[in-house]
Amino acid sequence: MGLSVARVSKYASHPPALLKDMNFDPANATREDVEGVVAWINSQPCREWTKHDKKLALRKLIQYVKYGGYDRNTPLPPEVKWLSLRVKENDSRDTSENLLSVEPLKNS
């Protein structure tokens, strides 16, 4: 599919954690089941891009289990078609503008 080894490794690491917290069979998943997993993902204390990747892994897992494929030609099941993968760029990391400068330390 044109993905790097690192990207495949990253995507492969998410399904085991998702399956561990799923209390349903992905082949028989309903929208309500998927909504519960998405709510759990959204409640995790991690970066928005990590949440995005977990939701993508969930969507691809359900797509594969229900239709036997996950490429662009495979349709999305209605149980996950509603799932938005949009990322809000709320990066909470410190930037150079937010860091303490030397001047306040000199005045202490």
Description:
This protein is mainly α and 108 residues long. It has one domain (5-85). Helices cover 55% and strands 0% of the residues. The chain contains five helices and no strands. The longest helix is centred in the middle third of the chain and has 20 residues, at 48-67. It starts with a helix and ends with a helix.
- Average pLDDT, rounded to a whole number, is 84
Q: How many distinct folded domains?
A: 1
- Work out the number of β strands: 0
Number of alpha- plus pi-helical segments: 5
Low-confidence stretches: none
Largest sheet: none
Roughly what fraction of the amino acids lie in strands? Answer: under 5%
**Overall spatial form:** elongated
Topology order in helix (H) and strand (E) letters: HHHHH
- The whole-angstrom Rg is 19 Å
Helix content: 40-55%
Give the termini separation: 58 Å
Structural class, from secondary structure content? mainly alpha
Briefly, what is this?
This protein is mainly α.
List keywords for this structure.
108 residues; mainly alpha; 55% helix
